[in-house]
Amino acid sequence: MAIEITGFNWVPDFARGYVRDLRPRWACEEIGLPYSTRLISPIPPKPATYFEEQPWGQVPVLHDGGIQLFESGAILLHLAEKDTRLLSRDPQQRATTLAWLFASLNSVEPGLFELGNVTLFSKDEEWAKLRRPSLMEDIGKRFDRLADALGDRDWLTGEFSVADIAMVTVLRNADNSPLITDRPTLAAYVARGMARPAFQRAMDAQLADFQPAPVAA
């Protein structure tokens, strides 16, 4: 049976191309794994049955035959187990790849979540204005260490892997920000990821699935 990935059928313009079902789409495209999409609305009320698949009603959810799972990181790991182009079978290479996969989601992404809240969703709140300078400094320090760890390699572990799918999609949340543009190593890394044909196919597919904005009742 083909892989089925659940995504949203509409999001605001600023979120298009950034919804996390892009991650498993990209992984499937890298290894030529066919997949279909099941599209749901992000606007409440969501079907009650969907919360049995994803407790918070988010995407993606993956169906792979009799296997069902949620969380993009878990889905990426599941898909990576299918092909050595995403996850090496060499014990140390595998371990390093997994470490970077988790690091992208646990050590890098949370700061960018908070930055999105501070600069977009809560930008007019006084607390957000006060928090932004120290948050930018904290994220910048973390990005400096990431750039140092990447060094002059093209990819986190030397060879492209599932860890790069996770990290590139995380770093894209800082697109056109000094957090990226002031760090040429990271800017070039993100550009390499986005230049991959599989990324472009995944992006095109996600964008094509979005429908016009829903009409207000």
UniProtKB/TrEMBL annotation:
Residue ranges of every copy of the GST N-terminal domain listed in the record: 8-87
The keyword Phosphoprotein is assigned to this record: no
Domain of life: Bacteria
E.C. numbers: 2.5.1.18
All copies of domain GST C-terminal, residue ranges: 90-215
SUPFAM superfamilies: GST C-terminal domain-like, Thioredoxin-like
UniProt KW Membrane keyword: no
Keywords: Transferase
CDD domains linked: GST_C_8, GST_N_GTT1_like
GO MF annotation terms: glutathione transferase activity
PANTHER family to which the protein is assigned, alphabetical: GLUTATHIONE S-TRANSFERASE GSTA, GLUTATHIONE S-TRANSFERASE-RELATED
Full protein name: Glutathione S-transferase
Organism of provenance: Sphingomonas kyeonggiensis
